[in-house]
Amino acid sequence: MFEDILQAPVLFSLSGTFATLLAIRLLLSFRSQPKLVPPGPRRPRRPRRLPLLGNLLQVDLKRLDESLLSLSKTYGPVFTVNFGPKKVVVLAGTKAIKQALINHAEEFGERYITPIFHDFSQGHGLTFANGDSWKEMRRFTLTTLRDFGMGKRLSEEKIIEECHFLIEEFEQHKGEAFDNSKIISYAASNIISGIMFGKRFEYEDKVFQEMIERDHEAIYLSGTAAILLYNMFPRLFCWVRTRKLLLSNRDKNMKEVRELLRQRKEKLNPEMCTGLVDCFFVRKQKEEEGGVESSHFTEENMNFVVGNLFAAGTDTTSTTLQWGLLLMAKYPEIQERVHEELNKVIGNRPIDVDDRKNLSYTNAVVHEVQRFSNIAPMAILHQTTQDITFQGYFIKKGTAVVPLLTSVLYDKSEWETPNTFNPSHFLDKEGNFVMRDAFLPFSAGRRVCLGEGLARMELFLFFTSLMQHFHFTPPPGISEDELDLKPMVGGTNNPMTHQLCAVRREGCTNAVLSGP
How does DSSP assign 315-326, residue by residue? Predict the structure, then answer.
């Protein structure tokens, strides 16, 4: 009995020590547990991914967005894919993408710059840049574009004036079949060129034509399988011909941009700036005279800001317009409803932006063209700026992120008939236009397209002006059913090369020509 009493403190001490050690172990075990990372595909029947190829054998590089959309059905709205040795997180579905890009704009707001885009810009300009330089260039560009009427009446006047030249070009073909892609590109490019340089270019200008053609080719090639492989394995595939062609196009266009800038500098009047380029020169001169240290207003940034705006302001708008005319020829019953509404609301007078509110069906068609054509199916890659836990998954700082816009514009939970061209997606039961939350063709958040307002105005005015004057049909001998809506996939989704007839509508006058 006495011995038991003597042993009791020892037992209590041992049990207390054991409990303490157990608690410490459990705490350390809990703290050392790996964070839950987004799931992703593994190679079938193998415990690990192929160390070099990753998941490349499970995706189609020729239509990568569709492969990723298919994977999202298995792994959910946030998942991981290994492109070679590079781990990429994919965001799929309207909810996940809006939550990331809007609610967590700072954390998902940086650009992931692939090897080919680093080759292109070396961190300069707007599209493929980060940090203070990008912030300063975007702030300056946005402010200056607005000062020169981006999305306002001044822009509207420029677009209506350009409609005059575009319609004249279409009329020259006298209803015979032709490829309209180049003419539309020239018209779209002249809008951003006017804002940057204070002037438009003639469609016959060879330098202008070649710059647009090189930019178009570069955007297409940047999304091809050869460049995707180079981005994954830059040391192994730096020799590919496609990369050399891209860099050659870049060098030629930069040479032309520098010459245009030189011409503007010779005519510079600081008291009367005619465009963004003049404003850049004035700002650069002021900072140099003021001894500003670490100024971002350098020649390199100027060259690439102009180059970025020229390419972006031309390609996506012109490509969307090409899709619009092709879809009108493909679906004549929809085209006829557009013509009927234009006849009823506008007649033969010139169209302006204020008419949009009274053209519900036509406005719905323009928006459905943007949704259906899905120009930028994977946007441009983002990158996390810090460690973040998103929808329960840990995503490390510096992770490349794909906002899969295909999964938004074709989201079955948001669109009644996502795989069908259906303007009713943007109409209520009374036939009034309604905007949809899942309409994100310009992306969202900090990296949303800074020319969105201008692009919307261009699309509406160019499309309605062309529809007011012409009826679009397939070439003779080809039926509507034979028109191919399968995209030619590159950096953006372009229509396959095709021809259409632009037939002058009976009773149509040169209404638009009386505009500004």
Answer: HHHHHHHHHHHH
pLDDT of residue 489: 82
Structure token pair of residue 418: 């996502």
Single out the residue of 316, 276, 305 nearest to residue 188, CA to CA: 316
Alpha carbons 208 and 190: distance in angstroms, whole number: 10
Using a pLDDT cut of 70, give the percent of the chain over it: 89
Mean pLDDT for 445-467 is 95
Instruction: Give me 270's structure tokens.
Output: 């600081």
- Write down the residue that tokens 């003021």 correspond to: 290
**For 331-342, what is each residue's pLDDT tens digit?**
999 999 999 999
Do residues 375 and 492 make contact, with C-beta atoms less than 8 angstroms apart?
yes
CB 164 within 8 A of CB 470: no
Task: Collapse the DSSP code of 22 into the 3-class scheme (helix H, G, I; strand E, B; otherwise coil) and give the result.
Answer: helix
What are the tens digits of pLDDT across the range 83-141? 988 999 999 999 999 999 999 999 999 999 999 999 999 999 999 999 999 999 999 99
In a 13 Å sphere around the CA of 70, the CA atoms on its Cβ side amount to: 9
C-alpha span between 442 and 95 (Å, rounded): 16
| Burial status of residue 365 (CB atoms within 10 A of its CB: 0-12, 13-18, 19 or more) | buried
Torsion of the alpha carbons at 113, 114, 118 and 124, rounded to the nearest 10: -20
Instruction: For the beta carbon of residue 142, count every other beta carbon within 10 angstroms.
Output: 14
Domain 122-374+413-514: top CATH class: mainly alpha
pTM, whole model, 2 decimals?
A: 0.90
Q: What pLDDT does residue 51 have?
A: 63
When computed from its CA atoms, the radius of gyration of the chain, rounded to whole angstroms, is: 28
Q: Measure the CA–CA gap between 323 and 329, rounded to whole angstroms.
A: 10
Q: What does the pLDDT look like over 3-32, one tens digit per residue?
A: 444 444 443 354 554 555 455 555 544 444
Distance in angstroms between the alpha carbons of the first and the last residue of the chain = 112
Cα 375 to the center of its chain, rounded Å: 7
| Count of alpha carbons within 13 angstroms of residue 448, beta-carbon side | 18
Strand partners, 79: 90
